[in-house]
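idk why but the lab printer keeps eating my pages so im just putting this in chat instead. protein + zinc ion:
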Amino acid sequence: MILSPSLLSADVGNLAAELSALEAAGVQWAHWDVMDGRFVPNITFGQHVIRQMRPRSGLFFDVHLMIVEPETYLADFQAAGADMLVVHAEATRHLQRTLAEIRRLGMKAGVALNPATPLSALDYVLGDADMVLLMSVNPGFGGQKFLPVTYEKIRRLRRMIDERRLETLIQIDGGVTPDNTAELVRAGADVLVSGSAFFSVPPYESRRRTFEARADEALSQTL
Ligand code: DX5
Ligand code: ZN
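predcted complex ->
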């Protein structure tokens, strides 16, 4: 299981220090929630902030674009130093082209689905994505309650990926806590995003270990 702490819940006034603290805690990914006030009713940070932080961090930058027409900004985020760009299927008109363009720019490509969007949206693009992000809350805010209907969606997506013999990662975002980690991993999740539940309980190293222990528990049960 890969843990990707969502910087939305970090102390944004001290982002450089927060990124260093994550790295020192043994975390490998950082999840950037980019919001435009149109796709979701909130505004956060954009490529400018990511570009400033890039030289200060060796973390894998997992950039979740909650913006309309993300295709307009792919090259900007690549120049800013994103390692992976995740676009919402609901936000881009030509999803296959957008995913192919992200890869052409040398980044990993991810596709995100809102809770209400069916997995059939992925039928003809699964092979174009390195990761699928299933939203387990409606996007826009940290600290919301996990929607349990997500478990069944993960199990079905796991089957789709395995049947096609793909290596696509499954990422879950929204309301993830140590309490639901084992069940998420058992259902087939590979990457867990956690904002409020991760940052509210420092120190980060022991928090990371808590999440990882729950994931290991689940994996040892399935063996
Ligand atoms: C929600 C964002 C999430 C959010 C998760 O729109 O995509 O990444 O930061 O926060 P928690 O873990 O607090 O639900
Ligand atoms: Zn996110």
